[in-house]
Amino acid sequence: METRSPTGWRHARALVMFLSLGSLLSLGPGRAQASVPGGFVENAGTAEVRPLLTAAEIQALLPSRGPFTFPAPYGTAGVRLTNSTDCAGSDCVYPVGYSYWRNINNHAGSNSMYIFLGLKSTGGGAGPTLFTYDKVSEQVVNAGPLFAAGSKYRGYPAEGWYFSATLPTALYLNDGAKMLRYDVVSKQFTTVYDAAPQFGSDKYIWQMHSSDDDHVHIATLRALASGAMLGCLAYRSDTAQFQYYPAVGTLDECHVDHSGRWLLMLEDVDGMNQLDNRIIDLQTGSERTLLDQNGALGHADMGYGYMVGEDDWNSQPGAAVLWPLDQDPLQDALVYQTTDWAVDMGHVSHTNAKPGAAAGQYACNSRAGRANLPRGNEVVCYPLDGSLRVLVVAPVMTNLDAAGGGDDYSKSPKGNLDVTGRYFIWTSNLGGSRLDAFLVKVPGELLTTSGADTTAPAVTATSPTGGATLTGTTTLAASTSDNVGVIGVQWRLDGANLGPEVLVAPFNKPWNTTLFSNAPHTLAAVARDAAGNSTTSSSVAVRVGNLTAIPGEVSPPSAAQPLRFLSSQILVWEAGAPSGSLTFKVYRGTTTGLAAGQYGACLRNGLTVATATDTETPPSGVAWTYLVTGKNTLGEGSLGKRSSGATRANTQPCS
Q: How many Å apart are CA 472 and CA 267, to the nearest integer?
């Protein structure tokens, strides 16, 4: 994990690493949102500065525990979780988890919420402690320590622990080489995996993450003696299988997206600048590297098939960008920025990610600074649609010059969201001598309600131009604009969708024309905004003319399945791409009668299915061999596949 300072990056040096600040919440397209009070929306370029609350104003505002309302202009509903009685009057509250580790359980469908916090056992606290919050009565209760007196876990800060996205009472924690699941109600442990038998007893795991379905778990593997970060491991609980990716440079941390498919390794690969991003597809093993200077993310979190975080090389200050991971080449989109280079975006969290487009989700950041600059001391949220709208939620109430919390990094608000995206948790020193933990209810409906925007986008397909003849792969491009912001463009070919919607500006799409017929076609672009308004561009008439393409062929079968007989008379084979007008030819010859470069006699021609019948039998002592080629409108393929597995050139084609 990395941390930012105005002069550059600094890395956590202790085994206990205190966590960070922002959070990204996902509501998903079309999900109904219960209204909560307060909040207001401004543009990311707005330079308004709101006065900081004084320590006296904060103390007058807050109850000893429970609900309160932030003053104007915020008006949002807050909840105080801790007070001095939880720490015997001392400063014992550890900063909350981190922006990508959940301190709040999956409470969907329940009136009760569980929250775990680290209370320093050497500072008047009881160690990791469970709190409950009743969403109806708004009563907050310190439910006591998570572990019995004498347990070694009483001395742990609970940093790096997190609630399951699915199981309401399951808390994940690490112990040496083991990943454990702990039920906060029954107080029972379950071992998810032990890395020692696979990687050695001289290793331990660090900074774990899990997919939302609890099937894929990743962690950084470290050397016990030196603490060196060796690589990233992934474990599938449903198959009990490990995958391992060793570091190739200086590794900082490992992460996995919420689907469990994409592994992110933050690592200095090239020895230049700062951290790069190694992006690994756990399903296929394929890997891509995004260098720091090309937009690699520092503080980052992941959704379903994408990542979002800070791009230090962006032309805008405090820039947050979105990278979809299934695109090739990768394309990013700016989703948030600050107005001053002295204000970074903070840490981003997506602990409430849901399947679906990133454009239906939004992020929340919190940060504190000595200078009172625009959004420099507030909790703010922003949609991932590129509209650069910002929801201002609450003041963080933190004073970096006050004693509470320790150093600046520990004092800074480092919040995360629950799985519903409606509650944001962080810690603040209130301008005093100790940290306390707080919730704020996020009025996300101010970003997702679409009734106010009825203006449809404008869109023009700009490339290719009308009348063009296209070959190979060409790039489809369009010019778009909207009063709020375009969040996606769906390209259409002959009136039907051409692949999935493009969700990243400038909404270009590569089109492989070799997969389509040599004929006239029409192209159009449909632009969509976050409110659901859409516009279809005028159609552009083009022609596909891949006249120099290689003729259609039968792709050779795999070594395990060459041409074979289903019975004594029926021959079958694997029909590879391209399809469409592809037909097949079957040749027959003797194993001794085919010289190099010969096919044999033409047995069948113009077949449209990958099977043929031969009712004849070879003469006594003679064995026949068969070969299949493909043909399309451009001619016959130059290669085929013999039943013996050898490839032969076609010098005696069927007529």
A: 36
- Mean pLDDT on 268-292: 95
For the question of whether the overall pTM of this predicted structure is more than 0.90, the answer is no
The sign one gets for the Cα dihedral 80, 85, 90, 95 is negative
What region does 39 belong to: left with phi over 0, alpha with psi -120 to 50, or beta? left
Residues 587/589/591/597 CA torsion (nearest 10 deg): -60
DSSP state of 199: H
Contacts of residue 491, defined as CB under 8 A and 6 or more positions apart, other chains included, come to 476, 497, 498, 499, 502, 509, 511, 523, 524, 525, 526
How many angstroms separate the CA atoms of 487 and 43, rounded?
Answer: 16
Of all residues in the chain, what percent carry a pLDDT higher than 90? Answer: 62
Q: What is the spatial distance between Cα 502 and Cα 489, in angstroms, rounded to a whole number?
A: 5
Q: What is the mean pLDDT of the chain?
A: 84
| Residue 509 identity | K
- CB half-sphere exposure, 404, CA atoms < 13 A: 27
Those residues whose C-beta lies under 8 Å from the C-beta of residue 594, and which sit 6 or more positions away, are: 600, 625, 648
Lowest mean pLDDT across 105-109, 422-426, 500-504, 576-580 = 576-580
Phi-psi region of 635 (alpha: psi -120 to 50; beta: other; left: phi over 0): left
Comparison of pLDDT for 655 and 149, the residue scoring more: 149
Are 309 and 301 within 8 A, CB to CB?
yes
Strand stretches in 109-246, DSSP E: 112-119, 127-134, 140-145, 162-163, 170-175, 178-183, 189-194, 203-210, 216-223, 229-236, 241-246
Q: Are 133 and 113 in contact (CB under 8 A)?
A: yes
Ordered domains of the chain (ranges, CATH): 2-448 (2.130.10.10), 458-544 (2.60.40.10), 564-642 (2.60.40)
The mean pLDDT of 296-307, rounded to a whole number, is: 92
DSSP string covering 283-343: TT--EEEE-GGGT--SSEEE-SSEEEEE-TTSSSTT-EEEEETT-SS---EEEE--SSTT-
Most confident of the ranges 117-121, 269-273, 485-489: 117-121
**Most confident of the ranges 134-138, 387-391, 479-483:** 134-138
| Backbone CA torsion sign across 250, 253, 254, 257 | negative
Beta strands in 414-560 (DSSP E): 416-417, 423-428, 436-441, 458-463, 469-470, 473-481, 486-493, 496-497, 509-512, 520-529, 534-536, 540-544
pLDDT band at residue 155, thresholds of 50, 70 and 90? very high
The angle subtended at Cα 73 by Cα 69 and Cα 75, nearest 5°, is: 25
